[in-house]
Structure formats: C-alpha cells, structure tokens
Amino acid sequence: MTNPLLSVSPLEYELPNFALLKDEHYLPAFEHAVATHNAEIAAILAQLEVSFENTIVAMEKAGDLLNSMLMVFYNKTSSDTNDTLQAIDAEIAPKIAAHIDSIRLNPALFERIQKLVAKREELGLDAESDWLLTRYYKDFKFAGAELTAEQRARVGEINEAISGLEVEFDKRLLADSNDLAIHLPDASRLKGLSEAEIASCKKAAEDRKLDGYVIPLLNYSGHPLLANLEDRSLREEILKATLSRGSRGNQNDTSDVVIQLLDLRREKAKLFGYSNYVDYVTAQQTAGSGANVHSVLRKIAPAAKANAQREGALLQELMNQETTGELAAWDWSRYTEQLRTKQYSIDTSVLKPYFEVRRVLEDGVFFAAGRLYGLKFTRRDDLTGYHPENWIYQVDYEDGSKCGLYLFDPFARPSKRGGAWMNNLVDQSHLLGKLPVVVNNMNIPKPADGDPALMTLDEVNTLFHEFGHTLHGLLSNVTYARFSGTSVERDFVEFPSQVNEMWMLWPEVLENYAVHVETGEKLSLDWVAKLTAAEGFNQGFETTHYLQAAILDLALHSQESTPDDLVKFEAEAIEEYGLTYSPVPTRYRTNYFAHIFAGGYSAGYYGYIWSEILDAESVNWFKENGGLTRANGEKFSKGLLSRGGSKDSMTLVKELLGREPKIEPLLRRRGLL
After folding, report:
1. How far is CA 17 from the centre of its chain?
2. What is the CA radius of gyration of the chain?
3. In this structure, are 214 and 263 located in the same domain?
4. 462 and 398 in a common domain
C-alpha cells in the first residue's frame, strides 16, 4: 500500500489523507522524511557562494515533508493515541531531537548565517526577510551553535534525553489518569447531578467496557462535577484522586521522570552560561529574564491570596448552614455556586441547556469571527478527519477567496490527553504555497446516545479561548512558515486566545447562540449584566490557583539541585510566595504538570497571566473603538493576527495600542486593585 505520508497530500488544502493513513505508515515516513531533509541540508552546504536565497530561503523550504508528517503524527498522539503510537513516539522523539541538533549545531551552516548577518545591509531584504535572518541567527545561538564542540555534543545528548523523557511523562500521566478515574457500581452517590451528567458518566463506563458509572479525571486540580455533587465524601475522593496522579507509589509514578528532566534542563542552562533554566528560557521570551517575571507576579500574589481568603470566609458561612467542619478544597466549587446564586442570582447549572456544542461553535464562535474578520464557515462532511468525531469546516474570506480548513474534535475519550488545545496540520506559507489547516481539541464529556451535547459556562469560555489560537493560525498571512500563526514567543502566544474570550458574552453574539436545547427559548440578555457584574467573582481563587502553579514552575526550574522530596518542595515554594491556603490547591501539582514536563511550557507557565496583561488592554481597545465591528477586526487582524511571528511581538502590540501596555487593567479585571 502506498504510504500517504511519503508525498505532499493531493487533497484540498493538503489535508492529510486520513482515509488511507494507518499506524504502520508513521515510522517509515519519518525515516524517509529525515533522509530527505538531510539531503536538502547537504545541498545547501554544497553551495560555495553564500546568499540569502540559497541559505535562509533554502532552509525554509527544506524539511517540508518532515514537518508535515510530524504535525499529523503529534496531532494523532495527543488526540487519539494507542500502544503502537506511543511506542513509535518513544522511538522517534530522541531521533527528532538529534536531527534538529544536527542542523542547529552545524558550524558550517551557522557560519553561512553569520556571513549573511555581517553583510545584511547589502542584501536589500524586505522587512519580513530581514527579520527571518535575525530569527535564524538567534535560533542557532539559542540551540548552542556558538558553544565548543564538546559542549555542543553534550547539548545534543541532553536534548535527546529530554525528548524521550517528555514522551514517557505524557504516557504515564494518561495511563494514571485513566487508572484513577472514579468507578461507581451505581448512581446512588451521584445525587445533585443532572440526568444528562449522570448519563454521561454511564457512557464513560460503557466506553471503558465497565458496568456502572465512571467519572473521568481532568488534567487540572478540579472537576466541573464538584459544583453540584451533594456527596461530600465523593467530592473528596474525586479531588484526592486528581491530586494524586503521577505520585510516588502509583503504578505510573512520574517522580523519576520529573527529577531527570529538571537535572538535564539545569545542566543545559549552565552550558549556555545561565545560572538556571528560567533565565535561559526567558531570555528568548518577551519577559527577558526570570527577575522581570517575578517582579510582576509578586505584585499580584498578596492581593490574590487576600481575596481568596475573603471568598473562603463567605463560603465557610454557607457551608455552616448545611454541615459542620472546615471548608476544604473539594467544597469550594459547591459553595461557590451557592454564593454566586445568592450574590448575583446566577446559577450556572441553569445555563447549561442553553449551550449545545454545535450551536455554540457555529452560531457563537463562528458568528463572532464572521462579524469581526469576515470569515465564512461551511461544513465539509465529505472530508475525512483523523477520528470519526471530527467536525470539518471550510473557511473562506468574505470575498469568496479561500482561507483554510478547520477541524473540531469536541469530546473526551480515554485515548485523548486532558485539556483543550489548538494545533496545525498544515502551516500557512506563501513561499510554500500552503493555506492553514487548524485543529481544536476539547474534552467535553460525550453524552449518551440521543442526548444533546451540552457545555458548562467554563467550557464555552474555553472554546472561545482555543478558537482565538485558531484565528491566529487561520488568518496568518506570512511568506515564511517560520512565522506562521502561533509561531511567536511562548509568553505571547496566549494573548490572541485570551482576547477572543471577550466575545462569549457580547450581547449580539450571546443572543445568537444561547438557545435552550428543548424549548428554543433564547437566553435573556439580563444574564450578560449578571455575569459582567460577577466578573470579579471568585477571582481570588482563580488567581491564587493559577499563580501557585506558575511560581511552582519557576521554582522547580531555578534550583541549584533537584529536590528529592517533590511534595515537600512544592509546599515550600508556594509558602515562600505567601500563597499557601489549603482550600485552594495549585492548579497543577508537580507530578501531573503536563504543561511543563510534556507540553512545551517549561519555565513558561507564567505566560498566561503575562499575556493577560496585553489581553486586558486590548479588550479595552476593542470596547473603546466600537466592539464587534469589521473595522476593528480588520485592524486587529492586519496589525497583529496575520503577522504571526514576522515582527517583534511587543512592537505589534504597541503599534495597536499606540503606547506601552500597562498592568492596571488586568489588576482591575481580577479585583486586585
């Protein structure tokens, strides 16, 4: 059988031919693509003359087959993995690292780049090409091209080891999350849940070929069912199972993997002359240094904890009316919902029937994108995705020209990692003649057959957020794939996605998608006022919950030696920042912190709140300029989204705002002033 990964896909938009693609195709395709890329690099080095075209542009064109294959493979391993794919992942991860290092650490290739930098004034490059030269020079330096031969060899060894360990961490975490899912023989302990939620738990058990009911664990320290479950002991069981994932003593303990990763990252940073891994990473981000990150987070932390404690005192009063005992982490969501109802007349469980998944996507998310950016979405049921539950849409501009393809994968399953994310199957590039193909994944509990798929308010917000990443990918309009879409600094990448959250409650948008699944009644716009009034509600918890994880990431990657007792260190790091408060657990504990040990956010989890500073400013900019208008969308798209990484990110923001961004709008939004 012909391997569909051995050549460019002949399908529209170069959509991979998933109808023909089998697990056994990936490894041969990888080996062929690496060999092809090596030949392309050798051809560059064989050129005696050094020019921008035969070096930088040639490198941009080289490796296209490998990049395409890897995007397909890693989308599959995160969305729908199995034992075969995990074994392939473990085999090729260190090989990929070694292959990349064979290029980035090649002295002859770096010498060609240096020659071009030295005579850049003579090259007559346009702005994007000039920035590409700068980025290649920095990329090679950051990889270690200026190190000694001995140091380069050691960096290569470290990178291979790290790649393999990250794959192993991800594998163990998925297995432990599945192993620790709560299995109940009957529904007697599910009192407080809706019929649809109970049916979803039944469906989760059936998918695992079990009798009874299953409550799958999510990737963070919490669970949406905690808000309504009346059985306190079950709430405790769910949260403790969540918090214990990857812990010592578990069959899928990740502790040894974490320790090895931290040791290797520290060694790598020191080879580059940095005192710790945080400074090595942040030197390449908009933050510039770990000290700059801490200066911002320490302004926020004390007010966040104080707010959380005030919230906790109010929740304790509510709890005292029901039962005895002290407020615990597994009680927070339940009494938060009661307090929200009491203070703002908001019962978020009442909202769920208004948020049917397909309608939220098509009449909410797509509707807002159409109003802002002139995009049109058309179902393409004739196209085949990588999983039967994929929804595929063709995306066009308002003038009828093609924009790209969008795949949505909404439902949770045991073969999918936790959380929600965006990734590309094809990167936009004028040089390569490619339009973007973008995927959004979520983990919405799959309903029982025949039942509507309903979302919580938080899940609706998450979908708008992830689609902000999608817009960054779809609206990309760059020459070079190196700059396509979300190819920006890690502490900037969350900015467009956070901005897109604002349209969830925009009256014109909400009125279009929030329709009761049974009665057809539209959600009253009174809810906009209620939810807006409650914008600062529970922000003490949310900010503390997040900051604990952000500073834990920074602390783990700042030590002179890796602690043996990770649990003790975690507690000490959070206490040192003054954020210890037992009813509020860190959003991610060390042993299941996939963002930093398998997801590319190592020493960078602070980026969410760093980006939110820019988001808060940009939301104000939209509101001050008329909100949901094509004029605003055009300016935001042309000035920022379409540019990807083709210009310094902070320069793009300052050009949009007309000034330097400030932290006050974020503090005001979170009730921290």
Report:
1. 26
2. 25
3. no
4. yes
pLDDT, averaged across the chain: 96
Whole-angstrom Cα distance, residue 179 to residue 88? 22
For residue 224, what are the contacts with CB-CB under 8 A and spacing of at least 6?
Answer: 218, 333, 456, 458, 459
- Residue 365 forms part of a structural domain: yes
Which of 503, 524, 545 is a domain's end point?
A: 524
Q: 470 and 341, same structural domain?
A: no
Do residue 361 and residue 506 come from a single domain? yes
Q: What is the pLDDT of residues 552-565, one digit of tens each?
A: 999 999 999 999 99
Distance CA 603, CA 559 (A): 12
Place of tokens 């990329």: 139
Please report, as a single letter, which amino acid is at residue 318.
L
Pairing label, strands 437-444, 402-411: parallel
Return all residues near 509 (Cβ < 8 A) that are at least 6 apart: 364, 367, 368, 371, 503, 628
Average pLDDT over residues 33-54: 98
> For residue 340, is pLDDT > 70?
yes
Distance CA 319, CA 333 (A): 11
Residue 146 has pLDDT above 80, yes or no: yes
pLDDT digits (tens, 9 = 90+) for 341-362: 999 988 888 999 999 999 999 9
Confidence check: pLDDT of 136 > 60: yes
Residues 301 and 379 in one domain: no
Q: Which is the catalytic residue, given 466, 542, 612, 617?
A: 466
State pLDDT tens for residues 151-161.
999 999 999 99
Q: Compute the C-alpha angle 276/279/282, nearest 5°.
A: 145
| Domain contains 400 | yes
**CATH number of the domain bearing residue 294:** 1.10.1370.10
Q: What is the pLDDT of residue 1?
A: 53
Angstrom distance (rounded) from CA 404 to CA 434: 9
**Contact present, 94 and 163 (Cβ < 8 Å):** yes
- CATH code at position 364: 1.10.1370.40
pLDDT tens, position by position, 80-129 = 999 999 999 999 999 999 999 999 999 999 999 999 999 999 999 999 99
The pLDDT value given to residue 32: 96
Residue 535's pLDDT is what?
A: 84
CA distance 609 to 542: 11
Q: Verify that 73 and 113 share a domain, yes or no.
A: yes
Does any domain span residue 73?
Answer: yes
Alpha helices in 430-536 (DSSP H): 457-474, 495-500, 507-513, 526-533
Pick from 502, 524, 546: which residue ends a domain? 524
Q: What is the pLDDT of residue 658?
A: 95
Query: How many domains would you assign to the chain?
Result: 4
Q: Is residue 156 part of a domain?
A: no
491 & 364 share domain: yes
Q: Which residues contact 180 (CB under 8 A, 6 or more apart)?
A: 217, 241, 242, 244, 245, 250
Decide if pLDDT at 532 tops 90: no
Q: Rounded to an integer, what distance in angstroms lies between the CA atom of residue 553 and that of residue 544?
A: 14
Domain match, 189 and 280 both: no
More confident residue, 634 or 673: 634
| Rounded Cα distance, 144 and 130, in Å | 22
664 labelled catalytic: no
CA dist 149 and 145 (Å) reads 9
pLDDT given at position 352: 94
pLDDT > 90: percent of the chain: 95
| Distance separating alpha carbons of residues 103 and 109, to the nearest angstrom | 7
Which domain range does residue 64 map to?
12-104+106-146
